[in-house]
Amino acid sequence: MLKVTDIAGRLGLDIRVSGDLHTEARGCYISDLLSDVMANGKEGDIWITLQTHPNIVAVAVIKGLSGIIITNGRSPEPDTVKKAEAENITILTGGKTTFETAGLLYNMFTAHGS
User: Fold this and answer.
1) For 34-58, how does the pLDDT look when each residue is reduced to its tens digit (9 = 90+)?
2) Closest Cα to residue 81, out of 48, 54, 51?
3) Host domain of residue 29
4) What is the model's pTM?
5) What share of the chain is helix, strand, coil (3-state, %, to 5)?
């Protein structure tokens, strides 16, 4: 398994909310539909999305996700940052597309046998 801090460092992601960077990411889920993540995301997954609003934090908490990666150069809304800080949820951001981010993360998980 990979720690969220390792993912941030190796993918060159910006840490917008540190949360618990030593949490282990057990897998990855990619979706921009909150209902889809609620139905299919698994505890410990790191979530890749374009969404930036506060409800992403609520989903991460309910599902027990290891963190959120926001792609395409987008930034979380100020209320999202506040909510993530209060809930200890890591939010990472990066300029790569969702596809590029997913591919790099897939390679990391494969290399670690996850």
Assistant:
1) 999 999 999 999 999 999 999 999 9
2) 54
3) 2-111
4) 0.96
5) 40, 20, 35
